[in-house]
Amino acid sequence: MRASASGILPRRLGTIAACGTVIGIMVGSGIFRIPSTVAGHLSSPGLFMLVWLVGGLLALAGALVVGEFSAMFPVPGGHYIQLREGTGELSAFVFAWTTVFLLRPVALGALGLVFAAYFGKLVPAAATHEHLVAMALILVVSAVNYRSVAASGALATFLSAVKVIALLAMVIGIYLVVPVSAASGAVATSPPTLHGFGLALVTVMWTFSGWGSSTAIAGEVRDAERVMPRVLVGGVGFVVLLFLAINAAYIHALPMAEIAASKTVAADAATRAFGSAGGSLIAFLVVVATFGSMHSTMLSAPRMLFALGRDTPVLRRLAAVHPQFETPGIAVLVTCLLGVVYLTTNSFEELAGAYVLGSWPFYVLTAIGLFRLRRLRPDLPRPFRTPGYPIVPGLFLTAAVAMVINGVWADPLQALKGSALILSGVPVFWLMRPEHRPWARPER
């Protein structure tokens, strides 16, 4: 039976494409600008590297948690499905509401603005039209994802390979060419605080974000029960090592004070190694990285809308499968439209802050859901079980709660706005819920 006739998305993505999507989402703009902010909170090289390690381990623990979910429920929807099964329909709907109107548009808008800024360095004529360039990028990646999931997977894999190779070349070049900075090992000028470390960790987790949303493609991955946990753990583990190597290279090339003061730390480090050509290298790297991250985000995000449409009769059109291309066409178009709208009304800093404070409360609920399912549905088939249970998910849950509290403390106004948007989904849920909802689960 054709997918378009049955309403089922065909499984056309293999292991390599799935891994390319995970890496593609995670390796975006953050690693080129976030290290400066982190160094501003932690002036000690040791603590600077420690917070990246802690953030990486936290991301890896989260990948192990969602890996168990993706193996149990290998269907389109990712985090939405995990919340629906783990903590109930209300939390899943509120997450979808928040994702549709905050998280995904925010991610697309932020990536588009960074892409446009660096694309202007390579093509000077585009430098004065950043928002138009960013908008064009959103439209391009949307068109590819609307047309073919197979082509989207291949492009995600290609872009991920290019940027990983280029980043590793930059790291190796810095170590080969630049003598170690005499000031890079200096001790902190002021004693670090737990609050400062927490603020730095929140910022680091923006850079590591994306591993959870990548599970949305599970419904189109062949042998997803076996492949998705391996892809999540392997992809996240690789990105953690890559980011540690990149930050070590920054410390090798630049004093900590210079890293903290820089708005373009990657460009400064590359210029130290390669001279004026370093700026062009970094511009190319950022363009490729943000292009790849946006494309992978667009590959995964509409699948959540697709799952929401299947569960909510009022939104049934979101679950439409294109009769020719066999993609969630309407969901792709809605994601594209909202990304363009957010792009025209927000700055990068506003977008990044809103993403972190809006996403982590749902990671808290996901971890809680894992514990609930182990207790309430012990006989549910689990092709993959989170290693170290209950310690690993317990540590992840504790860290996620601490991050949310620290983020609220650091920016209460942003937290208030985000909370208002999240909570506004509660009355919408009850308005859209019919008297007798038929909860037909997506086929595997």
**Share in helix:** over 70%
Mean pLDDT: 84
Helical element count?
18
Strand content: under 5%
**What is the global morphology?**
globular
Can you put this structure into words, describing what you see?
- This protein has about 450 residues and is mostly helical.
- It is built from 18 helices and no strands.
- The protein has helices at about 5, 15-25, 30-40, 45-70, 80-85, 90-120, 130-145, 150-175, 195-210, 225-255, 255-260, 265-275, 275-310, 330-345, 350-375, 390-410, 410-425, 425-430.
- Helix 2 crosses helix 8 (about 150-175), helix 2 (about 15-25) runs parallel beside helix 10 (about 225-255) and helix 6 packs across helix 14.
- The two termini are about 15 Å apart.
What is this entry, summarized?
Helix content is 73%, strand content 0%. It has 444 residues and is mainly α.
Keywords:
444 residues, 73% helix, disordered C terminus, disordered N terminus, globular, mainly alpha
Layout: helices, strands, pairs:
Blueprint: H1 3-6, H2 15-26, H3 30-41, H4 45-72, H5 79-87, H6 89-122, H7 130-147, H8 149-177, H9 194-208, H10 224-253, H11 256-261, H12 265-274, H13 277-311, H14 329-343, H15 348-376, H16 391-410, H17 412-423, H18 425-432
